[in-house]
Each structure stands twice: as structure tokens, then as C-alpha cells.
TrEMBL record:
Family annotation (Pfam families): MR_MLE_C (PF13378), MR_MLE_N (PF02746)
GO biological process: amino acid catabolic process
Domain Mandelate racemase/muconate lactonizing enzyme C-terminal: 170-282
Family annotation (CDD domains): MR_like
Protein name (record): Galactonate dehydratase/D-xylonate dehydratase
UniProt-listed InterPro entries: DgoD-like, Enolase-like_C_sf, Enolase-like_N, Enolase_C-like, Mandel_Rmase/mucon_lact_enz_CS, Mandelate_racemase_C, Mandelate_racemase_N_dom
Organism in which the protein naturally occurs: Natronorubrum daqingense
Keyword flag Lipid metabolism: no
Length: 410
């Protein structure tokens, strides 16, 4: 009724006013959605979203079995014919379409996240604007990355090898830290839940004295090498009890760590808050948390100092920005988790450019020499530990599809 009144008023005041605005014949439509898996240090799941507007949106879903099927069998039929500019409406449409089948957490949310990234890229390309502009504009010109470091042959081989290897010795950790800092990274992170060479029950969530001494020596080697030049963080992958984490944190007090990541699992915010109050280090969690709801209890209890949602897992670009803004109301800092290809990394750059309380985005592919080759550019994406926020439309990069094909897994 109001709109009828408004239209009558408009035609009275402006006789040329057309009260039935014509639906543009150029409204873009989604024509197809699919995935390509690249065999990186994780199976990087690239999402392609075709439109009839002459652009293809590129996204990335967190490496997860079943994501291809969810995207092609469930989401693609829902999205076909929809307007790719309606990014947030389509996010909710996808969630509704998978309601009861994982749209709150897990594989369904991961698939939705991957498509959401591709929608932002497509929308930016259609509107000829960078994603950060569509998100409200940038507040920094470049985005800082921190280096996840693995000393030795790489995480998977080391994890499968039950024998102690050089990978977990202090000297190897120091060398890896030196290399990352020399490349310009100002924050380096190391796994501490690594074999010490002793037989231990890894399910017991316990550290005895020799185990703590092994971890302490690794941290000491890294901070001796780069502590004056960079911040050092450690990751424990949810493996320990509150008591064991407290003991380890006490032993690591002299080393002024940037943060201790996932010392205990994130689901029990009470336990995380208890640990946070009892140790001097800043705690970080979030790579296994989904959406704002996944962070609400942790933030309400001031249980961590840093939240680390994984953008292609937690819900995508807009949801991560909202998590960051929610975190800011608790004066908590956003440090997104990222194990992805340049596509997921650029999603992190646009989030990092637009969220005030953003510190740094993870970079996890120092062991993949062709990571940069995936991008159709002569310049390396990461320079001096930073990525310049791009002004090109969409996410701001184009993939080199020949290189993608060369490393294609499925
Ligand atoms: Mg982690």
C-alpha cells in the first residue's frame, strides 16, 4: 500500500516518473557451479561459478571429502538461474537448501563457504569493483601474513613416520624460523604437538617432564634465532588437557610468545576461559569453529585473545567479517586460519583489508614452490610477508589454468 501511495505521489510530482521500474534485461544469472581439486600440500578445492555475464567467479572450499558432491549435486541446482550479485541472499538460500544436512557445521558449511567466495569474485567482476569495495572499503593498503613453519620434510610425511626425525629437533626449527623471517615474515608459527622421540600415549592429553622439556627446547631455539626480529607463536592442535596446557605454558613463559594456539579443543568455552585466566600467554582458537555462533560462547567468556576462523570453512568472506566485528566488541583480534591456495588467501586479504581488528592472515604453503605459479602474474603475490590489497575486480587475481591443470588432482 505504501509503495502504491509513493508511486502515485511520484507520478503527481514528476509526471515522467515510471511507476513500474523495468526489470533489467541484463540481470546476470548463474549458469553452472563446479570444482577443480589441486594437489597442493592440501587438496585445494577450487570452486568455479559460471555466469551469463561473461565472467567466472573463482572461490575455494576448505579441503574436505564430499565437498564436490555437495556443490554439484545440491547447491548447483539451487543456484542456477539466480543473480550472482545477491551474495548474502544466496548464502542464506544455500543454508536453507542444506538445512538438516550440514548447513550449520561441517561439510555442508564448507561447500557453502567455497561457493560464497566464488559469488563475491563474480559480483566484483560483474560490477568491476574489488571485493573489499563491496564490503565497505579498505582500511589498510596491504595485509600482513604470518608464516606457518614446518621444519624438515613436511607435515604429512613426518606425521606418518613413527620414528623421531630431524624434523622435530631444535636446530631444524631454528633454521626454518630464520628462513621465514629472512623472507620478511614478522610472525612465525610452529607446531609443538610433535614427536619427541619417546613413546607416549597421544590420546592421554598429558605432558610429562621430558615432553615439556622437548617443547621448551624447540621454542627456545626459535626465539634465540629470531626472537629479536619476529613474534613467535605455537600450535597444539587441540591435543591436551587444561592441566597439561597450564604446565606447558608455565615452562614457556620466558619466551614471550605471540599466542598459544588450540592447547585444548574449542568446544568447551568454560575450559578455555579457565585456561585463559590461569596462564600468562594469549590464547588463539577458531579454525574448527563455524560461523558467528561457533565463536559466541568463546567471546562472551573472554576465553581467547585471538579468533582464527578459516574463511573457506566457517561460512565465507561475509561471515568471517561478521565474526571479526563480533570479536571487536570483546576487544579481541582476528587472525584468520588459512591452508589454501592463492584463491583462499586473497579472500583473506579482502577480509583483512576491511576488518579493523585484523592482525595477520596465515600462510601455510612455504613448502609448495609452485604456489605463486597458480596465479597469472609475473610478480609473487606475497612480498616481504605482505600482500598489497588489489584494485582489480573481484578477488583481484586470475588463475593460470595451465598450472592448475598441471597439478590437478580431480
Ligand atoms: Mg592451527
Amino acid at each position: 500500500m505504501y509503495s502504491d501511495f509513493a508511486a502515485r505521489l511520484a507520478t503527481t510530482m514528476w509526471p515522467d516518473f515510471d511507476q513500474t521500474p523495468e526489470r533489467s534485461t541484463e540481470t546476470p544469472e548463474i549458469t553452472d557451479v563446479s570444482t577443480v581439486v589441486v594437489d597442493g600440500n592440501f587438496p585445494w578445492t577450487i570452486v568455479t561459478l559460471e555466469t551469463d555475464a561473461g565472467v567466472t567467479g573463482i572461490g575455494e572450499a576448505y579441503p574436505s571429502p564430499g565437498v564436490h558432491e555437495v556443490i554439484t549435486d545440491y547447491l548447483q541446482p539451487v543456484l542456477r538461474g539466480e543473480n550472482p550479485l545477491d551474495v548474502e541472499r544466496l548464502y542464506h538460500l544455500m543454508r536453507e537448501s542444506l538445512s538438516g544436512r550440514g548447513s550449520q557445521q561441517g561439510m555442508g558449511t564448507i561447500a557453502i563457504s567455497g561457493v560464497e567466495l566464488a559469488l563475491w569474485d563474480a559480483a566484483g567482476k560483474i560490477l568491476e569493483q574489488p571485493v573489499y569495495q563491496l564490503l565497505g572499503g579498505k582500511m589498510r593498503e596491504e595485509v600482513r601474513l604470518y608464516a606457518d613453519c614446518h621444519a624438515g620434510e613436511g607435515m604429512v610425511e613426518a606425521a606418518l613416520d613413527e620414528q623421531p626425525t630431524e624434523a622435530y629437533e631444535a636446530a631444524a626449527y631454528a633454521n626454518a624460523a630464520r628462513s621465514a623471517v629472512d623472507d620478511g615474515f614478522e610472525i612465525v608459527k610452529f607446531d609443538l604437538d610433535v614427536p619427541s622421540g619417546r613413546e607416549i600415549d597421544t590420546l592421554a592429553r598429558h605432558f610429562d617432564g621430558p615432553e615439556i622439556e622437548h617443547k621448551r627446547a624447540l621454542v627456545e631455539a626459535v626465539t634465540d634465532e629470531v626472537g629479536d626480529e619476529a613474534e613467535v607463536a605455537v600450535d597444539l592442535h587441540w591435543n591436551f588437557s587444561v592441566e597439561a596446557a597450564e604446565k606447558l605454558c608455565r615452562a614457556l613463559e620466558p619466551y614471550d610468545l605471540a599466542w598459544v594456539e588450540d592447547p585444548i579443543p574449542p568446544e568447551n568455552a568454560d575450559a578455555m576461559a579457565e585456561l585463559n585466566r590461569s596462564v600468562s600467554q594469549a590464547l588463539l582458537t577458531g579454525e574448527n569453529c563455524y560461523g558467528r555462533h561457533g565463536f559466541r560462547d568463546l567471546l562472551e567468556q573472554q576465553a581467547v585473545s585471538f579468533v582464527a576462523p578459516d574463511i573457506p570453512k566457517t561460512g565465507g568472506i561475509a561471515e568471517t567479517k561478521k565474526i571479526g566485528e563480533l570479536a571487536d566488541t570483546y576487544y579481541t583480534t582476528l587472525t584468520p586460519h588459512n591452508v589454501g591456495s592463492p584463491v583462499a588467501t586473497m579472500a583473506g586479504v579482502h577480509v583483512g583489508a576491511t576488518v579493523p581488528n585484523f592482525l595477520a592472515l596465515e600462510y601455510h604453503a612455504r613448502d609448495v614452490p609452485w604456489w605463486d605459479d597458480l596465479v597469472d602474474s609475473d610478480e609473487p603475490l606475497i612480498q616481504n610477508g605482505r600482500i598489497t590489497v588489489p584494485d582489480e575486480p573481484g578477488l583481484g587475481i586470475e588463475l593460470d589454468w595451465d598450472v592448475v591443470e598441471e597439478h590437478r588432482k580431480t
